[in-house]
User: Fold this.
Amino acid sequence: MSNPAHGNVLEMIGNTPLMAARRLDAGPCQLFLKLENQNPGGSIKDRVGLYLIEAAERAGSLKPGGTLIEATAGNTGLGLALVAAQKGYRLLLVIPDKMSQEKIFHLKAMGAEVMMTRSDVSKGHPEYYRDVAERLAREIPGSCFVNQFGNPANALAHEETTAPEIWEQMGHELHAVVCGAGTGGTLAGLTHFFARVAPHVQLVLADPVGSGLASFATTGKLPAKMTSWMVEGIGGDSVPPVADFSRVGSAYSIPDAEAFRACRELLAREGIIAGTSTGTLLAAALRYCREQQRPRRVVTFVCDSGNKYLSKVYNDYWMLDQGFL
Ligand SMILES: Cc1ncc(COP(=O)(O)O)c(C=O)c1O
Assistant:
C-alpha cells in the first residue's frame, strides 16, 4: 500500500477527489464533482491562501513574522488563516459587520485577528471594508495587503493545481467545466490552463440572478440594474481585475431558489453536503448537461462544505420562510 503520511496540514491542500455524480439527472452527459470541500480548511480557497502567501514570501513583501491583511469574511479568510498560522504570520482580516457570528468565531479560532467595519457603505467610503484593509496595510509597518481580487497568484493557484488535477483525473477526456466567479481567480486559472493545454474544453459560467457577471461574460457589458442574491462567495456587481471571461462559452443565471434546492438534491442523492454557491454551480451544470445533444463529460465544483449553512439551506423552516420549498 503506498499511501504515506502527510508531513503537515499544508501538504494536504489540493489533490482533491473527483466523483461521478451518477444519481443526478444529467441528460446524455456524465457529470463529475471536484470535491474542494475536502481541503483541510474546508474550501477551494485553501489553494489560494497557500499561493497568495507563498507569492508574497517570494516577492519579499512578507518577511518572517510579518502581518498579512485582507478584506474577507469568506473562505479566503479561512484559507489564509490556516496557512498563516502554520507559517507563523499574523493575519488581520477586515470584515463587514453583517457577517454571521459563526464565521467570525471560526476565523478567530483559526488564529486570525478580526476587525469589523460597516457593511452599509460601498466603495469610496472611508469605512468600506476593502478600503480599510488597504489603508491599514499602508499604516502598519511590515504588513502586506493580500488583495485576492487583484493578485495574479490567486489565478495561478488554479492554473497550476486545480486545472491540471481535473485534466488528469478526467483522463484527458473532458468537454466542459462549469464554475462560478467571485474574485474570478478560479475561472482565470482554468482559462489560462485550458487555452494552452486543451482549447476545446468549454468554460461555462454559473452566476446568481442579480449578479452582473453572466451578462458581462456574454456581452462584455455589466447590466444597468443589478440586485442582491443569497448564495455566498460568487457573483458581483463589478468585474474583478484578476478575472478573465475571454473563454466563457455560455453562462447561466441561476435564481437562489433553484441553487438552494440543488444543494438539497445533492445531499439527498449523492450524500455530499455542500455550501450555497455549489448549488448555483450544480444547477447551471445540470441545465448545461440536459441541453446537450451528445454525451459530454462535464466537471463542476463542490466549493465548500454545507456545515456552515445548516441554519439556512438545510433548515426546512428557513427554506419555507423564503418561499424556496
Ligand atoms: C464559496 C466560494 N467562494 C468563492 C468562489 C469563487 O471563486 P473565485 O473567487 O475564484 O472566483 C466559489 C466558487 O467558485 C465559492 O463557492
